[in-house]
């Protein structure tokens, strides 16, 4: 009996050695997981760096940064706790009870939390200003023409308007986030509907409207001999305006319009031929030459 028991008994150091072999056999698996996670981390970090402006414009920068931290935490946890056989414990209060975490979850959590906590606060951020008409988001009235101006403190910052009606400001100081600042456009035909814009996020709409312009339309009514004609009725029907000339034959209209364009203008006087012209708003040298009608009724 004693000999049989002696044969079946194993030396006391065999169990720890077997456990060590099993642990060592798992190290290549941890190394592979850590390496793959690290490669994914590098790829996503490259995407984040290259497309930071676009991601910020669509409000996705924080979400992608979170994914970068998760992949980095997986790589760190796999290497530290799988390959190097490190250990970590954390005990804290949560939801009215005691929460105890140990192993790789602690390392992963520290990487994610530390990544958010120690990230430096940005001093600048990109801002896209979309110039829109009063018809809504699809009302793109300015393409590759004009400029947008933002007054940030004492500094005035201009940026050109691009194909889709957007002006990109790459470096807005962080202290202006959420602030209302003066903003306007430089354009021949449009002006900002309001004098300020609120920088609430990475993009903002700047609504514009047609400029209201003031034009002078003036001239002289003469007879065929070049003498001024008084008592001539000069009519501007589109704007419902009339003017009666005096002894100098002069007439003048003040017109409000959104752009410079031609307008129908009529001059009529009893016993004289009625003349119609189409001068351009802003023309101050219009001349009517009226001829006497011989058979005009008296």
TrEMBL record:
Q: Where is the composition biased (Basic and acidic residues)?
A: 1-12
- Which InterPro entries does the record match to this protein? CarboxyPept-like_regulatory
Q: Where is this region: Disordered?
A: 1-22
UniProt keywords (A-Z) are: Membrane, Transmembrane, Transmembrane helix
| Highest taxon, organism lineage | Bacteria
> Is Transmembrane helix included in the keywords of this UniProt record?
yes
Q: Where are the transmembrane segments?
A: 30-52, 64-84, 99-119
Name of the protein in question? Carboxypeptidase regulatory-like domain-containing protein
